[in-house]
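Chapter review: from sequence to fold.
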Amino acid sequence: MQHTSPGARVLVVDDDPTVAEVVTGYLERDGHVVDRAADGPSALARADARWPDLVVLDLMLPGMDGLAVCRGLRERGPVPVIMLTARGEEDDRILGLEVGADDYVTKPFSPRELALRVRSVLRRGTAGGVRPPGRPLAHAGIGLDPAARRVVRNGTEVSLTVREFDLLAYLMRHPGQAFGREELMRAVWGWEFGDLSTVTVHVRRLRGKIEADPASPRLITTVWGVGYRFDAPPPDPAPAESGTRP
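The token string follows.
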């Protein structure tokens, strides 16, 4: 169902008809097929009818807000989501990332910038992007198959968003190497600029899904003053033998 960009099916969800029309025009000029919805229930119904390759989702919708719509989409299946948020509402942006949005753009925004973000997210969302998917990886009970876009933890499949998968894959390909948030944003998101809290939130979400104790992470560790590192911890030491020596 996935397409490469351009030429993807994009669902635009915004109750402001002017914004929706402008965004649709830019995306169609990029070669995408655009569906539109003005509220949450309509958005979910359209997604059910024709599953999109990407959703541009306004946070402030009447009745059912964008966070609830994003959760509803996540329950149905994996799809990249770009959230539209009000200027300066940092808490709302963080909430959007927490429920699984892959990116956000603040209003008022440049439609051209949004079109570029759509292109970037779609490019990263294809299996392996423009590069070969690479070999399967396995560290510390975590198995990652780039070709199948599948992650298992101790034999149980883990559901990850597009960005979460790409971030984990990048870190697992470089075990023991520390990366700054700027480096991760360039390597994983493909951005030369952006809000670094995007990386922070995705790391926190990943820890919640793959760490035995997310509050005391052993796999994705924080390197103070630098960023993050993927560690494959050594096995726990064998318990000491009981009994007394002869």
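Two observations follow directly from the output. Confidence is low (pLDDT under 50) at residues 1-6, 127-131, 235-246. DSSP finds eight helices and twelve strands in the chain.
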